[in-house]
Design a protein that fits this description.
Carbohydrate kinase PfkB domain-containing protein; about 20% strand; 4 strands; alpha+beta; four-stranded mixed sheet; Ribokinase-like
Length: about 120
């Protein structure tokens, strides 16, 4: 999170970021000079977590970033982007068709039947 705290130069060099919820809060606070605190008691309230991510993430899309992948631990991930729905993930100096912010939630897939735990920690 130091690039966000140290200098505004990140705006010309950064297009993607994949923070967790707390890192997203730090990014938001650094960019906007706020002291946004996460809501109390989010716990496993998925709707609250997703709303918090959107409130913090969408404003960052107006500051050079065009895509955020917010990691949500056991809840999965939330993709927030301004890329048009038909566009691929560009790299380098590709032209980037932008649209309105949109978000897609990706839950963690439920595991199938566990046959053996041998090697599970490897």
């Amino acid at each position: 999170m130091r690039p966000f705290q140290a200098s505004p130069m990140w705006r010309s060099a950064l297009a993607y970021a994949s923070p967790n919820l707390n890192e997203l809060r730090v990014m938001h606070n650094a960019v906007f000079g706020t002291d946004f605190q996460l809501s109390e008691g989010l716990g496993d309230n998925l709707e609250g977590i997703l709303n918090e991510c959107l409130a913090l993430g969408i404003p960052l899309l107006d500051h050079s970033l065009h895509t955020l992948v917010v990691t949500l631990g056991p809840h999965g991930a939330l993709l927030i982007t301004k890329l048009c729905s038909e566009s691929y993930f560009p790299t380098g100096q590709d032209s980037i068709p932008m649209g309105k912010p949109r978000a897609m939630y990706y839950p963690v897939p439920k595991p199938g039947k566990i046959v053996s735990v041998s090697g599970a920690g490897d």
